Amino acid sequence: MNASPGLTLDDVRDEPEYQRRDIDFIVHVDGDPKPYSVDVKYAGVDGGADLIETISNTRKGSLGWGYASEADIIIYYKKPLHQFHFLEMRNVRAFLKNEDLTGCGRHPGKTYRSGVLLYESENIRVPYKILRNTGILYAEVPADEILNIELFIEPEKNIRSKHSYSPLTAPYLQALLPELSYI
Q: What pTM value is reported for the model?
């Protein structure tokens, strides 16, 4: 899909290979040989922090996206703030490996489908100040700046109801990609 001039987007959400790697989109920027992998998350509540999943299924003991995601970027839609948070996964992994998690609370998660509990997860609640200071949170964008311009995701796929997150825009993502520290 050609999302905007200079940017091509591959929607891989329904491809098992990418689902296992926690990747929703592959973004190609003209002139840049490296594609960027993006995972999109949704938060319906806000408490001055972002959650990083450490265990995705407590019964199986499987690693959460904080350790297991192969995405370059996490784009978190914070519904109560009407804001998008851009997280650099390289810094998430380094933080979980090297940082003292003092000041980060534990937060259980539950995933339901049709009112039936599918699985429980474990998350750490990392305050925004820590996220900013460690370089994890590199952009905080009011949703109005994104939602009022060209849609990043094909609207006919009805992504909002299927995946519970709001669409992004290619021009904005293209502007943010160069801010990653390893580029």
A: 0.75
